[in-house]
């Protein structure tokens, strides 16, 4: 972990205090003071990253697999040390968010020519060079021949196999309380909807897939987890030894439904039939107001819409997105 590398913590703290008191003299109101505090902490982190990078004398390039979570202070430190920062876009739909995320790398590999045009005109992306390259995870994963979905016990008894993608819930209750989209309550609501769909569609196997199984160890999920385990046509997938197992399950499914994740975008790019759960217990629209793939029917704003569109898809409803336009 880069944060564990020794650095001049005390010296950097003194520099940050000097930075703070220099700026505080220019403050005109309380809001300015809050901004100075944030900038001072930012400056402290920046100084620490500069110290850490000084230990890597031969480092010429630094690659970030996830552009969303990468700290901006690190990018500035890399720039100061004249080390090239390279990022790859993780989520297609976030290109169209006006306030989040942002990127200040030297080279930014985006998903398509369509997103490049959007990012060039964005106020949040300031990469020196933006290069369309496609989804970096998909290209190799989709070449795997083995059908892992067929290995799930009892899958032959069902006419349709549906992958249900969920988001991991926060581990701490106080973080859950402040997160409107994947709070414990929102996730329990999501899982209850899965139970409802399984009860209504007993000819379908619902394979529930999260990034990991940490959510199932949270006490708040105990009741709904027990109900899920009792449903014969719900399978909770916890395989974590096969690389990119989730992609392979989606590839061989009849339909993917789920809360928005980068995997949703990747499924759509590969023309895998996909419906997006764009609601929770608090709102009936999460992502679609920012971008809807010019196919609003794939965004479901209630359990009734999700059920209706799922059933209509199997009867011939067209939910195909124009992948050539968005992903070429």
Features:
single chain; 328 residues; alpha/beta; 6-stranded parallel beta sheet; 4-stranded parallel beta sheet; 12 helices
Structure, described:
By secondary structure, the protein is of the alpha/beta class. It contains 12 helices and 10 strands. The strands form 2 sheets. Strands 7-6-5-8-9-10 form a 6-stranded parallel beta sheet, with helices on both faces. It starts with 8 loop residues before the first helix and ends with a helix. The relative contact order is 0.10.
Question: In terms of topology, how is this protein built?
Answer:
Elements: H1 9-24, H2 30-53, E1 61-64, H3 72-80, E2 84-88, E3 107-110, H4 113-120, E4 129-132, H5 138-141, E5 160-165, H6 173-177, H7 184-200, E6 204-209, H8 222-230, E7 234-237, H9 245-251, E8 255-259, H10 262-269, E9 274-277, E10 299-300, H11 303-313, H12 323-327
Parallel strand pairs: 1-2, 2-3, 3-4, 5-6, 5-8, 6-7, 8-9, 9-10
Helix pairs in contact: 1-2, 2-3, 7-8
With strands numbered from the N-terminus, the spatial order across the biggest sheet is 7-6-5-8-9-10
The number of strands is: 10
Distance N to C terminus: 36 Å
- This entry's quaternary arrangement is single chain
Protein structure class: alpha/beta
Helix fraction bin: 25-40%
The ordered string of helix (H) and strand (E) elements is: HHEHEEHEHEHHEHEHEHEEHH
Distinct helical segment count:
12
Arithmetic mean of pLDDT = 89
Strand composition percent: 5-15%
Rg result: 23 Å
Low-confidence stretches: none
The major beta sheet can be summarized as:
6 strands, parallel
Gross morphology is globular
